[in-house]
Amino acid sequence: MIGKREFALGVLVLMCGARGSGAGSSLDYAALAKEDAAVKPAVAAYTVKAGLANVSNWRLYKSLLGPKEKALIARNYFVVTSTDYSQMYHLYENNEYQRPKFPAFITADSMLHTYHVFYDYTLRKVESDKLFDLAVRLTDAMLKASEEDFSAAGNAEVTDAARRNVAYFAVARRLLTGAEAPASVKDLTAPDLDRIAKHQGRAVSAILGFKIDFSQFVPRGHYTRTEKLKKYFRAMMWYGLSPFPIPQGEIGKTPTLQALLIVRNLRRASAGPKSAMDVWESIYEPTVFYVGAADDYTVHDYAGLSDKIYGKVTSIDAFAEPAKLDRFIAEVEKLKGPGIENFVAKSRADSRPDPLFPVGRQFRFMGQRFIPDSRIMQELTHPKARGRNFPTGLDIFAALGSWTELRHAERDRVRRG
Question: Domain-by-domain residue ranges, the chain?
């Protein structure tokens, strides 16, 4: 029984996590109608007396609460202690077995954790049972179409772009199936495959001609469970991490030519009984549902612009026509930029942008997704927050309005210079 000026202790389980979604998909799952629960906080203000004198059930926790814990509850209204439980539900189970001795305060986090368990399991099943085979079919189709481009091209710039695309899809096929790359591009694929295998870090890709972060090819999470999932992870990381940016820094127009050829082939090539575009959608749309839309430009963004500038292309050499290529690039610059902005400095000693590391507007075959934690990291670190390499846990409380934590965070920033 809780009296008018008394209240009870409960066991609180807390586990935080977040997932987000971007925009630009043909299906906008984020636009689904949301219900307003219209919940109004109605807990009256209260204080805790020294020694927990006005906490009605503190003796239930007598064996768990020493003087230090009691003092923390009196000061902060809660205390955090460690347990031997390996799963969240173990604590709730223990409380259930001992009812009514230990009441449990059930938070939204426990429901989110349960949702995440189901989420991760279903995503793993979809990737392993369906998406892996689709990725192989799509890669084979795009590799074949790129080889045809390489044979058909007469313009030197288009020939170079087509050859790089052959190598690009040959790497993905090797990561998925272990198949050897065509002899004509092994000089391009071998260095990049070696960097992928060694997780080399930021280095210039022989295929792309600029830097990407090869350290990202280490399988993690549920992708470590089977060899099939490890292969899928590496191939999709290759598709998602490798950009085709518009000209910038020391990066020229070749990546844009590659992107135009890839978009054309997606729309005209066959991948078994379906078109390459249909198979691409069969991979992309389920991942939009699970993770969110690509933050980078995809075929949805480039196809319309290509039709607008080039019309019906009868010869792929037309893509290299200088005036039209410049106009296409200018139209891309008018598109909405990514929510997550890449920024890589030359070195620790030189904070200027690396001219060989692409940033901003770029096409990707399977673009990486917008997630809130990446945006938060971006907004709270250098160069947005100059001199700050990492955010801190204090930022959460500062964002919620705690001036004390904001001062601590600012003091830490000044101390670090």
Answer: 11-106, 120-371, 380-416
